[in-house]
Structures are given as C-alpha cells and as structure tokens.
Amino acid sequence: MTDAAPLISTTELAARLGDPSLKLIDASWHLDGRDGRPDFETARLPGAVFFDLEASSDQGSDLPHMLPAPDFFAARMGALGITADHSIVVYDTVGIRSSARVWWMLRAMGARDVRVLDGGLPKWLAEGRMTESGPGAPAATVTFTPNARPDLLADLDDVRVALKAGDQVLDARAADRFAGRAPEPRAGLRSGHMPAALNLPFPDILNHDGTMKRGEALAQAYRSAGIDLDRPMVTTCGSGVTAAILSLGLAVLGRSSRLYDGSWAEWGGRADTEVVSAPPA
C-alpha cells in the first residue's frame, strides 16, 4: 500500500464528513509555548480530536518534541480513538504549520492514509464551513499498531554522513537565522547553519492564503533555493516542526526525504558540530 496523497482540500474534506473511516486531528501548537488546546476548544472541525504535540513527544529527551518510541506514540494515538488503518486528516489553526509535523510523525509510525488539510482551519472558517466548540467528548480507546519507518528519519550521524556525501540538507528557517544574522529563539544555541546546507524558508512554498503551492510553482520554489529535486534530501529547521513542511512539499512533488529530528536545537547546541555564519555586517 502506498502513502495517500499528502494534501486534501477543504472541499474534498467537507464531502467526506461523516465517513466512519475518517479521523480528524487538530494539531495546533505554537512556538511561543502557548497551549494549542484553547484553539481546539474555541473552534474545531466536527468530530476532531486534539493532538498534544509536546505530550506526544519523547518525554525523556532534552531536545524539543522529539519523535517518541513507537509503543508510547501508539498508546497516545489509541487513546484518541485512532488506528494506523484509519483515514486521517491533520490540520492546525495557522494554515500549514504544526499539522505537517504530526503528518510526518504519523507516517513515521506507519500510518499510510494521512493527509494535511490544505489551508487548515483559517481556510475552513473563511469558507463559512461548520465547526464545533467546547472541550469535546472523550474518544473510545482503540489499538494503534505502529510500524516504524526509519527511511523518513535522520539523526545527527545521518546528517553528518549526508553532508560528507554531498546530499542536500534543506533548512526551513528564516534567511537571517540561517545566515547567523539573527539570534536563535532557544537559549544556548549558536547562530548560523550546517556547512553546505541550503536555505528554503518554509513560507516560500506556501501561498498568501496559507495553502501550499502546487505544480511548477512549488517545484520552482525548491529549485530557486538551489535544490536538485532528483537528488537525496534531508530537511531540517529549528526543532523539527517546520522542516516537516518542506518534507510535505516534497511529498506533494512525489519526492521522498528524511527529516532531521534534532534539527538546529541539537546541531546548534553541540560543541562538536561545525557551524557556518555570515560575517558581521
């Protein structure tokens, strides 16, 4: 079985509401630390459940929201009433942001029919579509059977090997952070980028309405960053969230990639990793 198409439109999703095989996940999360649950309780898609990114990540890691062990993730998903065989749609309250990370996590754990709602909740609301509010009813617990996919994941050693081999490492951070001209939002991290990494800030593959670019416009966004779409790729960012947006865009183009889960939170926080910074202005 191959993976589902990575994106689903609001029109297509609206037509599928009520399908018993369909599960909707609100993956709202904010970099500034705000809880996403109030977003969920204010307005959500009908029948959606809330995915707590931090609580569903590796609780024993010093790095932010790392992919957890399969059994831990399976228990979290099962408690939400979701199995690996459901047809899953993930969305967030920004457009395409943390939903891409949860899409990647689900795929990395073996779920195949996973899509991101193109444009997210903002597009859904702009079109006047139905929502619910309130805390939501508890889901009946089911069994999520994980099937880890290491082909979607890169660790520190993998990235070192990739850089040495000349594979492409795509950094989704803003250009000033990539160049080292702007400080990192997390304390204790050096500024700059990995040697030979390429910079493709994730907004460059999105439209103004929060949907993802398609076709040649999407491919050109990658090419403009110096990326050869026919060569191996690793995506990275500050902490593994917006890197998943680049991985999602590559999947839309039919390209595979690995995501560096530790991202700059790991690389920029170590003394044994090389960092390139722009000279002072």
List the helices and strands and how they pair.
Elements: E1 7-8, H1 10-16, E2 22-26, H2 37-42, E3 49-50, H3 70-79, E4 87-91, H4 98-108, E5 114-117, H5 120-126, E6 153-154, H6 156-165, E7 168-171, H7 175-179, E8 198-199, H8 215-224, E9 233-236, H9 243-252, E10 258-260, H10 263-267
Parallel strand pairs: 1-5, 2-3, 2-4, 4-5, 6-10, 7-8, 7-9, 9-10
Helix pairs in contact: 4-9
Characterise the protein shown here.
- It is a single chain.
- The protein is α/β, with parallel strands linked by helices.
- Helices cover 29% and strands 12% of the residues.
- The chain contains ten helices and ten strands.
- It has helices at 10-16, 37-42, 70-79, 98-108, 120-126, 156-165, 175-179, 215-224, 243-252, 263-267; strands at residues 7-8, 22-26, 49-50, 87-91, 114-117, 153-154, 168-171, 198-199, 233-236, 258-260.
- Strands 1-5-4-2-3 form a five-stranded parallel beta sheet.
- Helix 9 links the parallel strand 9 and strand 10 (258-260).
- Helix 4 crosses helix 9.
- It is globular, with a radius of gyration of 18 Å.
- The chain starts with 6 loop residues before the first strand and ends in a 14-residue tail after the last helix.
